[in-house]
Amino acid sequence: MKNKHRWSARRLSQCHWRNVSGAQLCRWVSVVALSVVPLACGSSEVDSPAGDAPPPFSAGGTGATVPSITPPVNMPAMPVGPVGAAGQTGAGGTGEGNVTPAAIDGTAGTSSGSSSGGAGSTPAPSEGGQGGTEAGEDDGDDDDGEAGTAGDDGDGDDDGDDDGDDDGDDDGDDEPTPPVTPPVTPPVTPPVTPPVTPPVTPGDCNNPPPASRLEGWAAVAGNGVNTTTGGGNAPMQVVTNLAQLQAAVAGTNAAVIGVRGNMAPGDVRIGSNKTIVGLCGAQIHGHIEINQSVNVIVRNIEIVGFAPGNCALDPGFDASVGCSSGDDAVIIQRNSHHVWFDHCIVRDGTDGNLDISNGANFVTISFTKFMYTPRTDNVGDDSTGAAGHRYSNLVGGTDEPDDFDDANSLNVTWHHNWWADNVVERQPRIRFGQNHLYNNYWNSDTTNYCVRAGIESNVLLEGNVFDGVDTPHEFNNEDDEGTANVTAGNTNVYLNTTGDRVTGGGGPAFTNPPYQYVLDNSNGVAAALQNPNTGAGPH
After folding, report:
1. What is the DSSP letter of 377?
2. Which has the closest alpha carbon to 299: 346, 264, 337, 266?
3. What does each C-alpha distance from 111 to 58, 62, 116, 188, 305 come to in angstroms?
4. Residue 65 carries which DSSP code?
5. pLDDT for position 262
6. In the predicted model, what is the mean pLDDT of residues 119-138?
7. What is the pLDDT of residue 466?
8. What is the pLDDT of residue 203?
9. Average pLDDT of 36-63?
10. Could you give the 3-state DSSP secondary structure of residue 131?
11. What share of the chain has pLDDT > 90, as a percent?
12. What are the helix and strand counts (H, E) for the chain?
């Protein structure tokens, strides 16, 4: 209502002078929020204030203030009741209040206000008499805005009418008092407040992007499970420290766990029917184990092993052995099945980054980046020297599994992954199982080899990009070549590579995966996976 307030201030005073039966009646029509205040004068001629200027007027702060008026000489001052105080404006919104000045005879003024923000306003009582009417209500949310201020800062509308009598007659003259015509108040058009559009925060990290489409072995029915759903539609519970995380992922109940912050290094064992989602750049440090668990999804998170730059940081490190004595950053093992890692970074595992072994099955690894901090492995009888045991991914841990049916398991799909900084070997190294690798990217300049096919493995390579690496794909040895098979069509791209690109072998070819998948054009794979907003890794 500020437009109306300003209009009243510009036309603050008008004076009309007329002789009435020897005694003078001066009607000073003071237009302060449309109020008319009479003033009797005792002389035959009274000068109006200089230039017909209004008496002092204050706007803002605690609302408009009507001061007492000094009467002319020889005229006793008529009492003027003080103005009712403006109602307090509730925190959290725009205050709006009405102030009615007190009548000249000292009767009560009134004040009223309402708050459209936080707690409702409670107007102060008038000091000129009876307390003002309490009309404030809470009609808004608690946190819709900042605290308003009293008076004009809170859009107060000073439009209260004068409660006093303004038609008093002269005591000694019968001449009728002509009517006073109040000034015409032009219609006030309330300002139109445009709708407020809240600022858009791109990529709100508390609402991470959805997972990519599930493709590959994790989508295939088997072992009594139709597909991989994790915690399904369970409400997300957010954890912020290691102890909370360890408790939340345990057991077999369906659960969706949001991880916020950097967890302290430790062991995290994930039970069945779980979805783990990283929020706002979350990191899990140490070792994740999926052991005899079913139906697990881990996505949009960075997993850092115990050994960034130094294998001795691993609490299980044995200097007599070397880096291989420590833990993987992630292990999927012991008949676990229907497991999906999507949009993760996995790095700096002591032994490996993400290994799959001991009868694990129906696994998909997608849009994940593997990398290492430079390190060496110069001690122990399993020392790898300058290579630093930076061996990223192993499928099948032994050629002679005694307790697990590796020959009929270890089926894994690797798609849209990126083997990046300082990876040396095992990208991946495969024993047994049918492994499908499509639309992946390799560009580590420390590579000894990328994909290695071992005993009884069946490998299918499609639409991949090998960029500046040594030995894109090979057999583990001649014996393994007799039982394994590598199929690589003409959709793979080799950029400045050296070494072997073997195909064939003595085992059956794997050419027809039992699931639907979308094969992207390999020419766009490198750029797509390196895109920081949509590529491999969390977002």
Report:
1. B
2. 346
3. 17, 12, 17, 21, 68
4. B
5. 97
6. 36
7. 98
8. 60
9. 39
10. coil
11. 61
12. 4, 28
pLDDT band for 123, please (50, 70, 90 cuts): very low
Q: Would you mind telling me the total number of residues written for the chain in this entry?
A: 539
> CB-based burial of residue 261 (10 Å sphere; 0-12 exposed, 13-18 middle, 19+ buried)?
middle
Contact call for residues 344 and 366 (beta carbons, < 8 A): no
User: Can you tell me the distance from the alpha carbon of 399 to that of 182, in angstroms, rounded to the nearest whole number?
Assistant: 105
Residue 174 in tokens: 């019968």
Q: Which two structure tokens, joined as six digits, stand for 191?
A: 């300002």
- 3-state SS class at 248: helix
Distance CA 436, CA 416 (A): 11
Distance CA 338, CA 336 (A): 7
Identify the pLDDT of residue 518.
Answer: 97
User: Which tokens sit at 466?
Assistant: 């090998």
CA distances from 383 to 173, 181, 321, 352, 376 (A): 122, 106, 7, 14, 9
How many Å apart are CA 435 and CA 509, to the nearest integer?
A: 11
Phi/psi of residue 482, each to 5°?
-70, -20
The reported pLDDT for the residue numbered 181 is 52
Which residue is listed with tokens 């809470």? 138
Structure tokens given for 403: 């307790």
0.70 exceeded by pTM: no
Which of helix, strand or coil describes residue 363? strand
Beta pairing, strands 110-115 & 95-100 = antiparallel
- The amino acid that residue 237 corresponds to is Q
